[in-house]
Design goal:
This protein is 38% helix and 18% strand. A 4-stranded antiparallel β-sheet has the order 2-1-3-4. Helix 1 packs antiparallel against helix 2. It is globular, with a radius of gyration of 16 Å.
């Protein structure tokens, strides 16, 4: 199968690989909180149009909590811990933001095993307009 790749797509793929490579390559020396923050930055990189960097509004539209793990094929998998049943499209947006991440490269065996066994828990904080911030990187929520 022949596929044409635009220079922009190639640059985005390379940037993503470098970001995830840096995340995974440093996982062995980092605390669990640092690994979680690096993962959140990777989601931000790959879902830029869906992310906001504002202080979350006082009353969020929805909160979706996922457990993210690596499977045996080194692909990211997400399990829903908490969602908003009235707005399944937001749960799907959170799941899609994980599913579109490329496989990590340079992951140490110790970090890989930790992500396979325990994974990490992250919360997607959705604004009224449908954009999200991840709890790990979110600014403090605005007051009412």
């Amino acid at each position: 199968m022949n596929r044409t790749v635009t220079p922009c797509a190639a640059a985005a793929t390379l940037t993503a690989a470098l970001l995830l490579g840096a995340f995974c390559g440093q996982a062995q020396a980092q605390s669990a909180d640092q690994v979680k923050a690096d993962f959140a930055r990777a989601v931000y990189q790959h879902s830029a149009s869906q992310v906001h960097n504002d202080r979350p509004q006082p009353l969020l539209r929805a909160v979706v909590v996922l457990r993210i793990k690596l499977d045996e094929q080194n692909q990211w998998r997400a399990e829903v811990f908490r969602d908003n049943p009235e707005q399944p499209e937001l749960t799907q947006a959170a799941l899609n933001s994980v599913a579109q991440l490329p496989a990590p490269v340079g992951l140490s065996p110790k970090a890989q095993q930790m992500l396979r066994d325990e994974g990490l828990i992250e919360a997607w904080l959705f604004q009224k307009d449908g954009r999200f911030a991840l709890k790990t990187l979110a600014k403090p929520q605005r007051g009412a």
